[in-house]
Request: fold
Amino acid sequence: MTISLTPHPGAEGLPRQDRVLGGPDAELIAESIAHIVWTASPAGATTYFNRQGTDYTGCPREANYDWDWVALVHPDDAGRAQRADDDALWERFKAAQDRFFEAKDEVVATENAELTANLEVKQALLGEAEALLPVTDLEAAKASLRHIQDRWDAAGKVPREEVSRIEGRLRKVEQSVRDLDDQRWQKSNPEVTARAQSMVDQLERAVQGLEQDLEAARATGEERRIAEAEQALGARREWLESARAGLHEFEG
Reply:
């Protein structure tokens, strides 16, 4: 039997049992009951035992204080009492676990819905980007692509399994525009144009020199010298035509 009594006002200074039980009258009642009477703190530590309790434990009254109450239950009931506590704790844990996973599932579902919506936006942007190819107006294509890229970044993340596919498609468009821009830059680069002009000039001088060599070979009438001069001159003329075509391309 367990009783819980509120200490009476001004209990400070009274003996321990008087503070716990609320005064000597309460103790008298507890001591007159032919059953074990004890109290415990909210933490489970015993704070009072009547005489029946001390007789049961075989310990002095003061030695019975601050025990874990489960240890004071009859051995036949202790296991059952402990199991009841364990079951109650398990139920509380399981309920908390269920609430946690339910909340987690809700968060995951919300995130999946957002990722799917973002994917739809990016798929529409891919359609706009791929429509720029083949590029016919480089400056217009670059401006449109920049606008697409800004909206792409703002669209957010997509499902993990879709990242490689859609990013790869956009990269192909970006690379095509970049390659065309690089080609145009190479054509307009003064250093490249200067090198191409220098090559043309060198080959023109080489051709002029080989033409003179051919005339000299013909003057000797030696077929072997003539054939060698013609072969060398033909090769240089082919190189010169190729260099002139390259220079013309750089000059636009």
Summary: The two ends are 106 Å apart (CA to CA). The chain has eight helices and two strands. Residues 16-72 form one domain.
